[in-house]
Amino acid sequence: MGARAIGARVQRTEDKPLLTGQGRFVDDIHLPGTLEAAFLRATHAHARIRSVDAAAARAMPGVHAILTAADLPERMRQTRMPMLVPNPAISELVTQFCLARDEVCYVGEPLAIVVADRRHRAEDAAASILVDYEPLPAMGDCRDAVKPDAPRCHAERDGNIAARFTASYGDVDAAFGAAPHVFREELFEHRGCGHAIEARGVLARFDPAEDMLTVWSSTQTPHIGKATLADLLARDPERVRVIAPDVGGGFGPKAVFYAEDAVVAYAALHLGRPVKWIEDRREHFLAATQERDQYWSVEIAVDGAGKLLGVRGTMLHDTGAYVPWGIIMPFIAAATVPGPYVLPTYRLEVTAVYTNKVATTPVRGAGRPQAVFAMERLMDRAARELGLEPAEIRRRNFIAPSQMPYSVGLTFRDGKPLVYDSGDYPACQAKALELADHAGFPVRQKAARAAGRHIGIGIANYVEGTGLGPFEGVTVRVLQDGRVAVVSGAAPQGQGHKTTLAQICAERLDVPIERVSVTLGDTGAIAMGIGTFASRVTANAGPAALMASDEVRRQILALASRVLEADLAELALEDGSVVVEAGNRRAVGFGDLARIARGMPGFSFPAGQGPGLEHTAYFAPPQAAYCNGCHVVEVEVDVETGAVEILRYSLAHDSGSLINPLIVDGQIDGAVAHGIGNALYEWMRYDANAQPLTTSFADYLLPGASEVPPIARAHLETPSPLNPLGVKGAGEGGTIPAAAAIVAAVENALGIHITDTPIMPEKIVALMLATRI
Amino acid sequence: MKIENGFDVPLPPQEAWRVLMDIERVAPCLPGAELLETVDNKTYKGKVAVRLGPVAVSFLGTARFDQIDEAARRARITASGTEQKGRGGAQATVEFALKETGPRATHVAIVTDLSLNGAVAQYGRGAAMIQDMAQQIVGRFAETLKVQIEGSEAERRAAASEAAKGVSGIALILTALWRALKRLFGVRAQIE
């Protein structure tokens, strides 16, 4: 088994406990004496807080404490949440306080925590707190907020512009001036929320015997949580431990460190009792970060043969009330536009503007789906105007494999020049077209039209920077029972990290995968870690697991050579033992070697031997690794209701070498489902006063099993030269081109022109009426 | 959210005006409303309860005439209330204008600028639903008021106790659904 582990379709080791109810999520952890918390949240999108009166609420049955900003220790009261991703373009930096002090800037901003013996009593008490608000003008639309005379989203700030920057290369104006054809599009792009099946959750316990604050959190980034808690609570970092137990999905919003995390931890310290807060779905709609609105005004210049000459335009990004992750999505979006095409000149002027809505941070795709939508809409427009097949205009503009590594001319969000490391874009599109039977589509469409049905086909390509640094670490340790422990800070939320890392270790040490025990997401288990986001774990923790395993392999062989009195050249690893490949095949098991490596009290080690069979390796990639893909979608539209049914979904993608194709299949399918939601269903609506309107799954639609068709996928494997496994990320790619391809297919089915996403049935019907279909 | 609607009163304008300005008399005609306190001759404290299907909300707040133009028979009320279970609040300015439409007939045009906040804003998603609801509340108010003006003592008492119950959730939803269906078929008719 060992020798074939990397690249094999290994069943996920995580699945049995999860599928048999043995998972252990935050709310499954029951500590004696636990109190339950609820938050009092702002009902106004923007208001001054004149007073908060919790006297009556404090006297309600079961209430142990109500803490407002005034009740927090000085450091917590004075400190805003950290901003994790600095960018010099940010001119006005505002992040949230732990609890609002004198101003609330979005509906859902926490004002107080109520801790009671039971959750419902905490909620009742929260509802009884009297808040005297002085409503202030609230900005609900980023197009209004950006106007110079607009009311301020933050009363004390100079303006609503969070950041302005320009991504550009080449003489774009000269290219447009000389271009035979220029086409312009005005696009509105909305992306909704992450909506992990498990919402946020925090359980905090202070143990005075150990002087240890332990926080179980449904988070993507436990090490960032630990560092931030130590800062905010002014605690020795060694006395703070953050554990991400089983986490039911992340998708980006759980990468953020939230005010609630700190306040729950403080409540546990303050009360000397464990405190648990489990976010309900409505709170998740209100106060977990989201993506949101972007307005793109872009134009494309092409020559008569459809060759790209340039793209230029502006983009307005609604960043919400705060910038906990800086301006990462618009920044990534601006760098993603050129995609797989030779684009000689480019300029995008980006403005990120505050509004009085919950902050935006990356959701699966992180600005890339919007960029791909913009670029692919422009490609479709140019194709239509020039009478070319959409696939053909793309084919004429691809970067050739011989041009790799290809320098785009921009700086990516990892701070490094945007250089594609590898990929074969023409082959990828050709494969996707073949899976989709693209050549046979005109016949299918003609037959459908004859039968009164409206079917259409759409195509979209993307290149995605994945495997972002700075680093991830893995410890590999041989245990005295012969098993191998693998530890990493890369906390999983369903991606199968345990299986992937175990496969790498099992192969290098030649042990059965069942004997590799993986511990993830516990800051008590490994000193340094970053977390799971940006399709980064396989490309960061994967190589670290390889490096640590190889060092432990060296240690095992060196020790076995002494124990077995055999030359290294004669030794082989075999199924958890070291065997002398000569004579009567003497062997020693890993467990025995681990005991020997512990040493004997008072005895010196022989020369060359160190303690234990253990190594921690950190891998820091030199830059992002760029994966790519092509999606082809065939839809049918009901012209009476505007309902869209996806008939065929075909894709080819290349995320470098695969550790486990089964897991990559699952990542792609899930990501496509997310993209289908973005294209057709998910719309987080606010009214003009920034009051959220869609705060349940009755109003905010997610795609279900019946909306997600079987997906035909092909894996291309162009190894990345950037890491020893040749891997790239695969967690987000399926989402990125989905909306662009689906919208193009709907357009093709109806002969209408679509400039928005998502497209609900009412929008489709309105467009049909306007176009007189 | 701007809501425009209106109702008719079977009285000449000068009498209609007098009746409508008698808040203690007309408040019981408003479905679900309860006048709790007359602070002064322009300011009133009260409670308004509305049921929408399974959701019952109750606002406690203050309404105040901040413009009264008797000559033009126009008035403006500013009202604000807080939902009693911490589910947000509502602010409204309501402008009334009376116009003679017949010998004993006055039309009262109402323009309401309503803003909701917190959970109640989410219950009311879809301005159309809230406008339908507002129209029904005004319609019921006008009917009750008509009985108050023209009806017998027994009819008046029956109408007042009916109004105190508020607008029925089921009736509201059925009417709103009916209107939504009419809109849908309107669209379909255009497609065909």
Q: In words, what does this structure look like?
A:
The complex is a heterodimer of chains A (773) and B (192). Chain A is α+β, with helices and mostly antiparallel strands and 773 residues long. Chain A contains 20 helices and 29 strands. Chain A has a seven-stranded mixed β-sheet with strand order 3-5-1-12-9-10-11, with helices on both faces. Chain A has a six-stranded mixed β-sheet with strand order 7-15-14-13-8-29, sandwiched between helices. A four-stranded mixed β-sheet of chain A has the order 18-26-27-28, with helices on both faces. In chain B, strand 3 (43-52) and strand 4 (55-69) form a beta hairpin. In chain B, helix 4 (127-150) packs antiparallel against helix 5 and helix 4 crosses helix 6 (169-191). The model of chain B is unreliable at 187-192 (pLDDT under 50). By secondary structure, chain B is of the alpha+beta class. Chain B starts with a strand and ends with a helix. The chains are: A alpha+beta (773), B alpha+beta (192). The A-B interface holds A 40, 43-45, 107, 126-129, 135, 282, 639-640, 685, 687, 689, 691-696, 699, 765, 768-769 and B 1, 85-89, 91, 115-119, 121-122, 125, 187-188, 190-191.
Give a brief rundown of this model.
Chain A is an alpha+beta fold.
Which CATH class of the largest domain in chain A is shown?
A: Alpha Beta
Q: What's the mean pLDDT score of chain B?
A: 81
**Which CATH architecture of the largest domain in chain A?**
2-Layer Sandwich
The CATH superfamily name of the largest domain in chain A is Aldehyde oxidase/xanthine dehydrogenase, molybdopterin binding domain
In the sheet with the most strands of chain B, the strands line up as 1-7-6-5-4-3-2
The DSSP helix count of chain A reads 20
CA-based gyration radius of chain A: 28 Å
